[in-house]
Design a protein that fits this description.
Elements: H1 4-24, E1 32-40, H2 43-64, E2 70-74, E3 83-91, H3 94-105, H4 108-113, H5 115-118, E4 129-137, E5 157-164, H6 168-178, H7 183-189, E6 194-202, E7 208-215, H8 218-229, H9 232-239, E8 249-257
Antiparallel strand pairs: 1-3, 1-4, 2-3, 2-8, 4-6, 5-7, 5-8, 6-7
Length: 263
């Protein structure tokens, strides 16, 4: 007669095998992201906007349980008449975003800390325009990854790219190239520190996809992209007939995290 401990070990082993079988085929849920783009023109606007993000919005969102919120400025801000700030955050659902707005309106600390932004008058708005872009992670990159960087935030270079397609079908072909075509794997192999890959599900440049890679500095970025462009797998993939002419326009934004950004 088997001892209790022997029976327990056998049952545990069976349960472990069953659990492994059940969960092995379970795919991680594809995350959703929100990217808010602020355009502004003056130092006064920048002061109000960054103060609002640092002292009001991010603390309130952290209190609600949101994490890994990125706040970035364009590296072209010093020379551009129209300056840009980006706020990236994983979101739980569209319904949760609606609830989030209500929670913010009822958060006294948020209202006080963000008063100069929230109550700005029409003659002194904190930005020129703002755009909200909704994103859904790629099937084969379903969750964001925090970058593994060693440089201080003020030295880092993050690269945000948008690839537009001429039609929905052609755009879907580029998404497939990243996923089943293994373009993502090439970025992984060269350690490009990709934070996310995503399809835009609501935005002003559709149909398009967006993704972000990260580097310690500009030289590090250039070295990684040189490795990517010369990679044999990329040369083979990019030459395949089925993936020709699947990008009609590319926007490349070089950005840098602000000191209070989560990453």
């Amino acid at each position: 007669m088997k001892s209790f401990s022997t029976k327990f070990l056998l049952l545990s082993a069976v349960f472990f095998l069953f659990a492994s079988f059940v969960f092995a085929g379970k795919k991680p849920k594809r995350e959703m992201y929100q990217l808010t783009v602020y355009q502004y023109a003056t130092a006064a606007q920048e002061t109000v906007l960054t103060g609002y993000l640092k002292d009001a919005l991010l603390p309130a969102l952290h209190k609600m349980g949101y994490k890994n919120i990125g706040v970035f400025k364009s590296l072209a801000n010093d020379t551009s008449a129209i300056k840009t700030l980006y706020v990236y955050m994983p979101i739980k659902s569209l319904e949760d975003q609606v609830a989030m707005a209500e929670k913010l309106s009822n958060d006294a600390n948020y209202q006080t800390a963000g008063a100069s932004y929230i109550n700005a008058v029409y003659t002194a708005p904190p930005y020129t325009r703002m755009e909200v872009i909704l994103l859904k992670a790629f099937p084969l990159a379903p969750q964001m990854q925090l970058p593994n960087l060693t440089a201080p935030k003020n030295e880092r270079v993050y690269e945000l790219r948008s690839y537009e397609g001429a039609t929905e079908k052609i755009f879907a072909n580029k998404v497939q190239m990243f996923n089943q075509g293994n373009e993502i794997d090439i970025f992984k192999r060269i350690n490009a520190n990709a934070v996310f890959y995503s399809e835009v599900i609501a935005g002003s440049h559709m149909p398009n996809l967006m993704y972000m890679t990260c580097y310690n500095n500009k030289a590090d970025r250039d070295a990684h992209w040189k490795a990517f462009s010369s990679d044999p797998a990329w040369k083979t993939l990019s030459a395949l007939p089925e993936y020709q002419h699947n990008v009609s326009h590319i926007d490349i934004m070089f950005i840098q995290p602000l000191e209070f950004s989560d990453f």
